[in-house]
Design goal:
homodimer; about 210 residues; alpha/beta; Cobalt-precorrin-4 Transmethylase, domain 1; Methyltransferase, Cobalt-precorrin-4 Transmethylase, Domain 2; 2 domains; 5-stranded mixed sheet; 3-stranded parallel sheet; 10 strands; about 35% helix; elongated
Chain lengths: ~210, ~210
């Protein structure tokens, strides 16, 4: 079992006594070098006849480098079984009672990140085309991200920022997209965090009731 | 346990002996009347002190009416715990080795349906803005759907259509978006089916290897 650094201990305890656990979380070293080492280790163990489990948080095929690992494993001749997970792009909203689609309110959802070249231009194009926009890893440059989105949808579009979705120390804030960065700063919301923008954020609000999130 | 008609028997068998199962699949009757009856039944059971599980296939908050059920339950004063699922919008691609995002190939994914007024206009806008486009429930009007998308991205953009994703009778076809409807007709691909459009469809192809899907 090769697992990320952020897998909850309770999850790892589900492994049977015969399982050998190796943490391969990306801490220190360049990210690409670490990724190459993880893939090489999987191939090494598979060729030694081991059944290798690569456990990631979220869905590894939604901005989780699962596709890259799959490509390299297939190229090495390793048989692969893919088990999809629940992506934080969708679970973040659900954990605060916000569905990404809702009949009469939102008929489309787009998921992206705020990383890489051209990301602000991509955010503007997506904001114009979709009802609900989810931006993963949005905390670091939140002011720039929200300004780009607000320039297309206006500063009043409802938004929510969810930090550490589904963890015991999950926190979230809500507010208009034009204000959410300031609100997040005031509340000291830490990364990693997922931004959700759209009318779905306020569509279900029922006064005086709380949503219990698992 | 109020479950949809399409939940696999093996899943239902995971229930303990104390669980009472009721199938509330939408078969016959108008869809909205059925939905109202399901919600009313949940509220009735909750008010009687029962712990009610509403089990759906996929993720009920991605075009699954989960948001509507949540809204009505909260308005009725019922405490709700939301457990996100794996949406077929993402699992369909993964089941055939297609990640919806891939570094250097796709930095965004949009999910929508081909249902409702304005859906063709919405499809064109999303196709222009996103790298990967996923259209759920795309089989019924696939020719119209693919024509709308091809009018924006061109007829050669790679596409895949996955029917009954992750079921034992799952089937899929691949081809250029301009040809995929004809290919699906020739292969007698049945609904429900999910359409995936983007360069990710062909990005991982490795000759002579198969991907085992769970």
């Amino acid at each position: 079992m090769l697992h990320d650094a952020l897998i909850a201990p309770a999850t790892l305890e589900l492994c049977g006594p015969q399982a050998i656990l190796e943490s391969v979380g990306k801490r220190g070293g360049s990210e690409s070098a670490q990724q190459d080492a993880i893939t090489a280790r999987m191939i090494e163990l598979a060729r030694a006849g081991r059944v290798v489990v690569r456990l990631k948080g979220g869905d590894p095929f939604v901005f989780g480098r699962g596709g890259e690992e799959l490509r390299d494993l297939l190229a090495a001749g390793v048989d692969v079984v893919v088990v999809p997970g629940v992506t934080s792009a969708l679970a973040a909203g659900e954990s605060i009672g916000v569905p990404v689609t809702l009949r009469g309110i939102a008929s489309s959802v787009a998921i992206t990140t705020a990383q890489g070249t051209g990301s602000m231009s991509r955010l503007r194009d997506l904001a114009a085309a979709t009802d609900t926009l989810v931006v993963m890893m949005a905390r670091t440059n939140l002011t720039e991200v929200t300004a780009a989105i607000a320039s297309v949808v206006g500063r009043e579009r409802p938004a929510a920022l969810v930090s550490k979705a589904t963890w015991t120390d999950q926190r979230s804030v809500e507010g208009p997209i034009g204000d959410i960065a300031r609100i997040a700063d005031s509340a000291h919301i830490d990364p990693p965090a997922t931004l959700i923008v759209g009318d779905v954020v306020t569509a279900l609000t029922v006064s005086g009731l709380q949503l219990a999130a698992l």
